[in-house]
Amino acid sequence: MPSTSQTGLLRSSPEVLWRDPTLSGTLLRGPWRLWLLGDGSPTRHLQLLTGDPVAIDLAAMAPDTGSDLHTPREVQELQAPLLRRQVWLTCGGETLAWAESWWNQQQAEEHLKEKDQPIWRSLTSNRAELFREVDGVALVQAEWLHERLQGEGPFWSRHYRFFRKGQPLTVIREVFSPKIERWLGPAIDAENNEVFVNMFGNAAKPC
To answer: Distance between CA atoms of 192 and 195, rounded to whole angstroms?
Structure first.
């Protein structure tokens, strides 16, 4: 089956409640600053943290209509027509992240031949040179994230682009479960947590 064939129903992107406009990560504790702002592969890092391989649970892959209000603006740099892929990332049976990516449909056909394979592995299978640029760190919220990520939210997220030969190849957004605090500790300290409690209220403080 061609990789660009439609699979599942796309969900709307999570709503962005707060973003770090300077990408300084100053409210974040050190481990989370490295996690969200570093240029390493989260798939690889999840495997290192948990000791378990990362499994990809494909939720949807279908043409993108461009009607989603919460799509990162960097998606506009990709050449239409676009395909969007949405997945859950699990380790040892636990869901630790949700991710979506936007592609030119022809590029998707070339790079997403294995639907259950992490994107990083697909893109580096032939040792091709890539450059990753983090474009946004944010707190996001969506009702459908709560049960699978096991937290009330909002949830920490980031989005970034992969470049090849100076051209944007894909835009990827990742949203992380609060379970990751098991290995990294709290994302923010008590003082900064009060900042977010005042912003969102006790029911919506960041996990």
So the answer is: 5
